[in-house]
Amino acid sequence: MIKALIFDVFGTCVDWRNSVAREVETAFPGIDSLAFADAWRGEYDPAMRRIRDGGRGYVALDDLHRENLHRVAKRFAVSAPDSLSHVWERLNPWPDVVSGLHALRRHAIIAPCSNGSIALMTRLARHAGLPWDCILGADIARDYKPKPEVYLASCAALRLPPEEVMMVAAHNDDLSAARALGLKTAFVPRPTEYGPAQDKDLVPSEEWDAIAPDFETLAKELFA
Asked: Which pTM was predicted?
């Protein structure tokens, strides 16, 4: 029985690419705002990898986003205010997400298991209308996915064994890490997360416990 669903957020629940690009275009008219968004996101994993590998102590994603913003702004020959890093708190949800989360929440606890901090996830939830029961993920584990501690800390915080928790993500590697720890898994593809030329995570790489085109369908498949 699934008693809780925990969710990847960036890409799975919200459209980071177009949301970031819109604010970048306002801040820097005339530059390629989608390229800037892609470059900013491109710094995401390398920044976290240094922490996962032990080369740096835990630093909240809010601070990594700000550091990465200035690194990318220099590359694009613009000067970015620190305040622009808060765009990650103002990302818009995919069309099915809010209604789908409400449908799922009628049957189970729902919470983010994101690399975003508690502060970031809370403000993003308020902006996007995401009806979480609580905020889980990197901040409580003091580490970043796909490290096992992040998934296990989320389960432990809910006082549930991994087999009663389902990880929902649009990224196969996220689900693979969760499955290895005993969590149930659900794949919901977001084929335009990285734009029209996206070439990864278009299809499931394994036979996940659930595969659905959107959150509303996932609710029906799990709890019909």
From this structure: 0.96
